[in-house]
Amino acid sequence: MAANEFLDEEKPRGILWIFGVFLGVVMTVLIILGAWWGSEPGQFNIIDEAQIRAKETHSSDNIPVGYVYTNTLAHIAETLLYKPGGYITNDVGPPGVFLDNVPNWEYGALVMLRDATSALRNHFARDQSQSAEDPDLAIAEPYFYFENDSWALPSTEAEYEKGIEALHKYMERLQHFGGDVKRAQFYSRADNLWQYTEVVIKRLGGLSTRLAANSSGSNLGPGLTDVEREQAEKQGTPLPKVSWLEVDDVFYEARGASWALLHILRAIKYDFEDILLDKRAMRTVDIMIKAMENALQPITCPMILNGDGYGIFANYSLTMANYIARANAAALDLRDIMNRG
Description:
Radius of gyration: 25 Å
Number of strands: 0
Structural class: mainly alpha
Order of helices and strands: HHHHHHHHHHHH
Largest sheet: none
C-alpha cells in the first residue's frame, strides 16, 4: 500500500519534469535563434556583387554605367529579405516578434533604399525633366514604398521581391539591348547627383538631431530645464523628446541607414567617377564613406549605453550622431560642388 502511494506521488512530478525540460529546450532554441537573427548583416563588395550578377544573366563582364548603383540597391533589398531570420519587422511569432533592434535597423536601411530608388527613377534614369521615365523603374519604386509591416496577403516580402525583379529587368536592359529590347539609360550628371544629395542631407540631419536628443544632457530635449524648455517652445524651436525606452530604437535605425547609405555612396563613387573627378569632389565622397564606416564599428556592449558628460559610461547615441553629422557636413559640401557651373 505504501509503495503504491509513493508511485502515485512520483507520477505527476515526472510529467512536470518533462514539461519543464521541454520548455527549457524551447527557450534555449529561441534565445539562440534570437541572437543569430538579431545580428546585423555585414558589408558586401559592390563591384563583386555586380560582376556576379552580370555573369549570371548574360555571362559577360560588361558593366555599363549605372549597373553597379542599381545592383547595389537590389542587393540591399535582398539582404533585408534574405538575411538570417529573413525580414523581421512583420513577424508575428517568436523569436522575431520579441526582437526590437532588428526592425528599427531594417526601417533605417529601407528609408535609404527608398530614397535611392526614387532618385534612380526620377533623376538618374531621365535625360530631362520632361523626358519619359523608365518603365521598369516606374514599377520598381512603388513596391518599395509598400507598408513595411504587412504579414497578411500581400506580404511585405512579396511586394519587395517584385521591386527587386523590376530593378533586375532595368539592369538587363542597361547591359543587353537590341531588337525589341529598348536600351535603358543612366545619366551620371552633376545636377542628378545634386538632387539626390539634397535628400541625403535631410535624412542625415534628421537622424543626427534625433540621436542628439537621446542624450540626457542634450540641449534639444530631455536635458533642458522647465524654464529653458518653455522659452524654447515660445521661440518655436523643435524639441524632439526621446524616451529612454526608445534610445536604442533610434540608434539602430541610424545603424541601418548608415549601412545602406555606405553601400550607396560606394556605388555613386564608382558610377559617378568621371563627374566627381572633374568637379574635384572625390575627396568629399570619401569623407562621407569614412564617416559611415566609423558609424558601423562593432558594438562591444550588450546594451546601448546613454552616459552623461564625461562619466564612466559611453554615450552611443552622441557618438553615432557625431559620425552622421560629419557625413552630413560633407554632403553639404558635395551639394555645393555639384551645384556649381
